[in-house]
Amino acid sequence: MTLKPVQTIVIAALIFFMASFQLLSQTPEQWWQDIDTLTGLIANHHPNPWGRVSQKDFLERTDEIKAKLQHWNSEKVIVELMRLVASLYDGHTEIRLSGQERFNLWFPVRIEKFYDGLFITACAEAHKELLGSRILKLGNLEALEAYKKVATIASKDSAAAASRLTANYLSNAIVLKALDIINDEKVLSLELVTARNGKKSVALSSDAWVMRNNWTWNRASVPTKNKTVTVFDNRLNELPPYLSKLVPARIPYWFEFYPERKLFFLQFNAVTNWDKAPFVDFTKKLFKSYDDNVRDIEKFVIDLRFNEGGNGALLPPFLREFILRRDSLPRGKLYIMTGSHTFSAATNLIGKMLKYTSAITVGDIAPGPLNWYSDVIELKLPNSNLLINISSMFWMEGHALDKRGCYPPDYYLPETYKDFVAFRDKPLEAILAGTALPLKDILLDQGWDKFKAEFEIRKAQHSDVENWFPYTHFDLVLTAYFDLLSSGKGDDALELLKFNAVLYPDDFLSWYGLAEVAKDLDKTDLALSSYETLIKMEPQIADVRPSYHAILLLKSFRDSGVKGLAAMFEKMKTAHPTEFNENSLNVMGYGLLQKGKAQDAISVFVLNLELFPDYANGYDSLGEAWLKIGDKQKARKAYEKALKLDPGLSSSKKALEELNKKGRG
Where are the domains of the chain? Predict the structure, then answer.
């Protein structure tokens, strides 16, 4: 039978409709409703949804998803919504796949990211030869590229904090297929370097396993129903203390005093009230043991490397005990170890300890920042039944300008698989050896040169300075002003601020701090160039213009004397008539006078009075300068002229009275 054109069109439309229906388990209209509900819930409940992403970009992405709905299956839509929510850069706000049965398809390997690559740390027993293998290629992509792609759907506070949750999805067949990392959800191809350094290619088959939220929290967990093996097997008796309470089961908190190493060690794995040892009772027992042994303790170490948070309300009494013992816990005795799973209430504790104790932090970058959103509300989308956690509160333990979205410790030692599998604890080794020195301590105790040399050593070891450097631009400005300048270390302060401007060249305050300190230290050219950079970054800035203009005048005087100063002043007065008056040169002269340059100050004051001969305060300033160099006669004439112009000028009256007394004496 030959089909008529109209019949052909109808059948084609039916085929397209059927295909679209197969792609989506719910209609595009239902997905639209879910997407609109999602964006509305975020806007209504999150304390600051657009703090780390612009609302415009977020809504444009929702429109893109809506436009492509008919071309995607439901799994692809869900993965793209996960990417959308992850773009908020809030590690607590996330779409959870619990109850989404279609995602219960897994490859039987546990893949974890370390500083030295992606490794298989556990797997189904049938693939035990893969244990300890480093992945070179995962599906269609190089291992790191695959990891980065999966990381885009994992909730996090910053890119540097991605590894904490990304491991949950690296072996999920549906996620990998939706992200085009694999072509077939039934097969995952891997290219590996095995534990014995041989290259190997394998193809793994997927199988059903019920998705559990954050299943990788258990270090021995593998997404398979079959018997499994881990890198810990047959080595449980060899586990160091910090792993022995994590594998095979996690203990929330425990402590031990090691008298032979003079070490008091607390591992704090979860901020919770354990029924076997209530936290209040544990805290009392902990500090009683510390007090009983305090004379024999050289290092008190708190291990938070595997602590993903919990109930922060439990922390204040715990913190109070440390505050009460500050005298017995000076700088260099109290340490906190951080890792790639230190999150939420754990970094809450770090922030408080940094404020109120002398604690030094050592280890890997913590994915939990000092300023963060949390206290989630669990909500459900109406049609897909997708679960979404949305933060409802904002907490701040760092300074207001700390927007890093992670916490880099004072002394950075990244987690490597090589150390992990060898059961080597480098952070603890560094603490016990006394080498875990914060860069700031080196700067304050040993000076700029030692600081810079140590920074270069650490940079050579870990080139990703933007991730591990422990101080923000504002931290460095504060250190320069309140630690260095206040203690007479002006040269070190200036070098630190120059370093700051190089490290954070796009930050406004980096240049502001440098310009102001360079001005105060008479580094005229550096101050001038820094002010010019600042004004270029923000042309409308008003509060630095007086300082900038003063530096321009000072440079003209330095380079071309009084004549050059006069020319520059007239030029600037013409360009900015409201900003230049008789007080401008007077302030400049006083600045010179305060720095012991009385003769230069006199030259500036004389010029100012030539330009503004009726300026009484100018004669008062000139009188003070003449007194500074001991010329009382000229000082007297200047004060008398000031009073002639302004009989009520009290400073000139007082100065003349003092001169007359001394004259009579």
Answer: 44-234+380-392, 241-369+404-436
